[in-house]
């Protein structure tokens, strides 16, 4: 039996509860409802990056222009040979480092190496000598997120700051392999001077009529890209590029396009979310189209793609003829790198490293290169032999 008091009070208590709950629902709704977008980049990561980028821009502008007092010594001083900065973006072990060690051997005065390893990934293999101590302070990276752009910009900024001789910046991943010996790559980068005023160009793929580009443009929402990124200026291309120093600075300096590309994608459009394949080609095509080749030096096979992943080569596919096939390009230069190779490919790749991959072939590399260029390249490469490697400034790097 219920007492008369309880039966009388219940409707009253209920309506009070109902009234109180309305503002509570409004307050909590955004937390209770599922979010509409994928996670955004944490503000703390953004501000740390900004500080790093500012330092990189500042140091690059001071090293580029000699002050009047040092102008004389600037011209008489032997200019160090240009170097290639290899930027490895990874979330697993660098299993192909024994192959890269062979590629790098004897050329340490002409390159620097930087690794951005996702701090949440478990790396079990100890770094091989060239990779030791080259890990830059890294932050979490995910697919379908602008964190991959941030990681690439972090690598570019660190390499800009670390050594003013870094003139080319090659982005690679743990599943990339070289297709030619180091001197072939080096000479190709330095002999290309078809940019404005005879300058070197960046090797970056830039396409405007790609498959699914409409969905990719609207992945962050309707018209959110405007006014900075009009639809007809939105570009597509592989994230694996080789940028010149000028373009690396351009990328690190950019705030305008980044404001839009850093926006997280809508969850319902996550299948169209590949911001890293759009940010770099869009930015460089807007700011210096003549300074870019429009194609990449990294070969990839999209014939049997699965959920945005290209064909992954298995050990049974590795052969001399595969390497020769992968080098073939429609661009001015042969392909220099290829992806993606399964980790188990290390052994068969090492077996053909000396006889095929790193074998000194001169034919078929230069498709349109004149004699003057070759002379200049050889001269600069020889200069490089006398170059004493800079020490690395400790604050730039983290552990191992
Ligand atoms: C690309 O991958 C397909 C398998 O999807 C394979 O049949 C083909 O030989 C590959 N092409 C090259 C150049 O490796
Ligand atoms: C070169 O271009 C032809 C014709 O457009 C195309 O069929 C072929 O796949 C291209 N080869 C490479 C290696 O990109
Ligand atoms: C490659 O071969 C050419 C011609 O034989 C030679 O001049 C050059 O020094 C060689 N390069 C390397 C890195 O061995």
TrEMBL record:
InterPro entries: BC10-like (IPR044174), Glyco_trans_14 (IPR003406). Keywords: Glycoprotein, Glycosyltransferase, Membrane, Transferase, Transmembrane, Transmembrane helix. Its main location: membrane. The keyword Transmembrane applies. One of its GO terms (molecular function) is glycosyltransferase activity. GO terms for cellular component: membrane. It is a single-pass type II membrane protein. The keyword Kinase does not apply. It is found in: Membrane. It holds the Pfam family Branch. The chain crosses the membrane at residues 12-29. Signal peptide: none annotated. This is Uncharacterized protein. It comes from Oryza punctata (Red rice).
């Amino acid at each position: 039996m219920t007492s008369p008091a309880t039966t009388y009070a219940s409707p009253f208590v209920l309506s009070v509860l109902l009234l109180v709950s309305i503002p509570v629902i409004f307050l909590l709704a955004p937390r209770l409802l599922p979010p509409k977008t994928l996670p955004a980049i944490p503000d703390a990561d953004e501000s740390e990056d900004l500080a790093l980028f500012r330092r990189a821009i500042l140091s690059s502008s001071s090293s580029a222009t000699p002050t009047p007092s040092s102008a004389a010594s600037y011209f008489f001083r032997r200019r160090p040979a240009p170097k290639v900065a290899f930027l490895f973006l990874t979330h697993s072990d660098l299993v192909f480092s024994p192959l890269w060690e062979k590629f790098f051997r004897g050329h340490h005065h002409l390159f620097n190496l930087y690794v951005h390893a996702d701090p949440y990934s478990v790396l079990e293999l100890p770094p091989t000598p060239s990779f030791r101590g080259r890990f830059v302070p890294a932050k979490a990276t995910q697919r379908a997120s602008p964190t991959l752009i941030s990681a690439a910009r972090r690598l570019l900024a660190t390499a800009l700051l670390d050594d003013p001789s870094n003139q080319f910046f090659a982005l690679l991943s743990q599943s990339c392999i070289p297709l030619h010996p180091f001197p072939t790559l080096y000479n190709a980068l330095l002999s290309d001077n078809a940019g404005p005023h005879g300058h070197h160009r960046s090797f970056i793929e830039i396409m405007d009529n790609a498959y699914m580009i409409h969905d990719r443009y609207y992945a962050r929402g309707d018209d959110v890209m405007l006014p900075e990124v009009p639809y007809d200026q939105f570009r597509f291309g592989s994230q694996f590029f080789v940028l010149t120093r000028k373009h690396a600075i351009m990328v690190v300096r950019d705030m305008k396009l980044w404001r839009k590309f850093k926006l997280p994608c809508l969850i319902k459009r996550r299948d169209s979310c590949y911001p890293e394949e759009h940010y770099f080609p869009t930015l460089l095509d807007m700011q210096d189209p003549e300074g870019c080749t429009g194609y990449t030096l990294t070969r990839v096979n999209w014939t049997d793609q699965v959920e945005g992943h290209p064909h992954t080569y298995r050990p049974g596919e590795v052969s001399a003829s595969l390497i020769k096939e992968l080098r073939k390009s429609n661009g001015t230069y042969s392909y220099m790198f290829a992806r993606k190779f399964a980790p188990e490919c290390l052994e068969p790749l090492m077996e053909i490293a000396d006889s095929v991959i790193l074998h000194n072939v001169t034919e078929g590399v230069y498709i349109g290169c004149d004699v003057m260029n070759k002379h200049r390249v050889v001269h600069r490469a020889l200069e490089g032999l006398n170059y004493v490697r800079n020490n690395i400034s400790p604050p730039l790097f983290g552990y191992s």
